[in-house]
Design a protein that fits this description.
With 122 residues, the chain is mainly beta. It is 0% helix and 46% strand. Strands 2, 4, 5, 6, 9, 10 and 11 form a 7-stranded mixed sheet that branches. Strands 1-3-8-7 form a 4-stranded antiparallel sheet, with no helix packed on it. The termini are far apart.
Amino acid sequence: VQLPAFGGGLVQAWGSLRLTCAASGRAFRSYDMGWFRQAPGKDREFVAGITWSGISIYYGDSVKGRFIISRDNAKNTVYLRMNSLKPEDTAVYHCAARDRGRYYDPDDYDYWGQGTQVTVSS
């Protein structure tokens, strides 16, 4: 499974962006998906997760109420809508897929994309 992500860029504080992860591979719809981010000098942080069916959704505490994760299995795509962006949201955002395990633990994810840079200016 390949997971290229795009849609990042430079945005002012309180602005919005939508990230897209366009997965390859027919098994996409069987995987739970997650978005993680990593800022320079910091550990990889869980942002949002969604189960293969889309029924269960999870968010990291720092993005609850501002970010929305969704998926379209017919298009092999997962999205991350980011609203009310803050400078502390600046990071490289990665899309990841897992077969099982804990939605918040990056070690439980089997496939990773290269990520897309999001920079929020104050």
